[in-house]
Amino acid sequence: MTCRRSSGARPGRPAAAAPEEDSNGTNGEYCSGTDIWDGPPFHPALSTMLISGKGKDQPMSIAILGIDLGKNSCSVVGVNTAGAVIVRRTMRRQTLIDYVAKLPSCVVAMEACCGAHHLGRLFTEQGHEIRLMSPEYVRPYIKAQKNDDRDAEGIAEAASRPTMRFVELKSEEQLDIQTLHRVRSRLVAERTNLLNQMRAILLERGVIFPAGRLKFERELDRMLFESNDALSPRMQHLIGGPYVRAEWKELDEKIGALNREFVQLARNDAAARRLTSIPGIGVLNATALIAAVGDASSFAKARDLGSWLGLVPRQYSTGGKPRLLGISKRGNTYLRTLLIHGARAALPSLSASNTPMGRWLTAMIERGVHRNAIVVALANKLARIAWATLRKKTNFERGYLAATA
After folding, report:
1. Whole-number Å distance between alpha carbons of 223 and 105
2. 326 phi and psi angles, rounded to 5 deg
3. I need a surface site. Which of 75, 201, 282, 342 has the fewest CB within 10 A?
4. Does a structural domain hold residue 49?
5. Roughly how many angstroms between the first and final C-alpha of the chain, as a whole number?
6. Buried/exposed 304-332: b ≥16 CB within 10 Å, e otherwise
7. Residues 105 and 180 in one domain
8. Looking at the structure, do residues 99 and 142 belong to the same domain, yes or no?
9. What is the pTM for the complete model shown?
10. Does residue 336 belong to any structural domain of this protein?
11. With contact defined as beta carbons under 8 Å apart, do 68 and 111 qualify?
């Protein structure tokens, strides 16, 4: 099946009129001059794959460009409007940026992983539409064996689905706030590990301290000041010298500096100030919510935010019989933890208030619902209130619809 040159009619067939030239100067056949294609007819989906003798760098009509991101190299698959693969390449990150800049406006699809938001902002400035997806939603579209090319093809296929759920592109300010929270979380974990190690060391020597970080710090400093005989001089120097206790103080200073920065961010941001008007949501919760969901425009309903945070029961229904299990624990684990801690702290005051929320909490307590279940239910309600606060740009009214005495 080749293009062959013919000066007249094919054997056994009458001569046909010469086809008119199209706008590209070709005769509409994909063969130059009087060349005739003697193979099977072209499939319409493959029409954009064929390039008429102008080199391989001629632009092709890419509708969706799927990118499988890597640290150094990225796999790229481009599909046309019919869904046929017309580009399949592997290139380095800077080459990818230059390549996408030369393409006409199209949909650029990526998994919402490290580096995706940065490239998404670059491609948005170039006029492309960015679609970020969770990797767990892309996995069902990967065919056969897993490799980078198949991943990029699956990303392009998933981005074309009308029911796909996309991740909102984060701004640089959101990523900065999110990074501050990640660093603070790591420092808190390091401090917790250090305190647990100190408690274990002292327990081996018969010294027991009450629960609580502040109580432990106060009693430990008193013991080191009084030179307790329970510790050898070596242990006293190790714990109270420039090692363990000094490291504890250094971690406290770093965490305190980050806390002060969060307070300053909340004061300067109108959305964060509105969120802090909600009981159970403080500076950490407000800034973490803004870093994660922005203005919550990616969630159509308030319950969608609670479901995304994993604060709703996990469903395992079949045969028309609904079956609800424990909470799904999906989504942002850090943000869900903050909301649950905030709900636990606000539960006593809210349950004692003469408001619809207070009566709702009191009714669950009187029915004998487990306290942890009440806390999670309150955290889910706080997430819904946070969605309404972000979308409507209004403060939370604590006495809204309060019952009159």
Report:
1. 69
2. -70, 180
3. 201
4. no
5. 91
6. bbbbbbbbbeeeeeeeeeeeeeebeebbb
7. no
8. yes
9. 0.77
10. yes
11. yes
Same domain assignment for residues 135 and 71 = yes
Q: Biggest alpha carbon distance in the chain?
A: 114
The pLDDT tens digits for 122-164 are 999 999 999 999 999 999 999 888 899 999 999 999 999 999 9
The answer to the question of residue 302 being in a domain is yes
Smallest CA-to-CA distance from 10 within 41, 40, 35 is with: 35
HSE on the CB side for 185, CA within 13 Å? 14
Q: Is 5 left (phi over 0), alpha (psi -120 to 50) or beta?
A: beta
Q: Could you give phi then psi for residue 306, rounded to 5 degrees?
A: -65, -35
Residue 17 lies in a domain: no
Are 211 and 187 in contact by the 8 Å Cβ rule? The answer is no
Instruction: Say whether both 305 and 226 belong to one domain.
Output: no
The rounded distance, in Å, linking the Cα atoms of 353 and 358 is: 5
Overall number of domains in the chain: 3
d(CA 106, CA 39) in angstroms, rounded, equals: 33
Q: Is it the case that residue 53 has pLDDT exceeding 50? A: no
Tokens 């408690």 correspond to 199
260 - beta bridge partners?
A: none
| CA neighbor of 272 nearest in space, from 393, 369, 182 | 393
| Structure confidence by residue, pLDDT tens digits, 67-118 | 999 988 999 999 998 888 999 999 999 999 999 999 999 999 999 988 899 9
Tokens of 308: 């995304």
Residue 266, both tokens: 């909340």
Q: Do residue 307 and residue 384 come from a single domain?
A: yes
Indicate the SS3 state at residue 123.
helix
* Pair 144, 187 in one domain: no
Boundary of a domain, candidates 106, 139, 167: 167
Q: Per DSSP, which regions of 11-55 are E strands?
A: 35-37
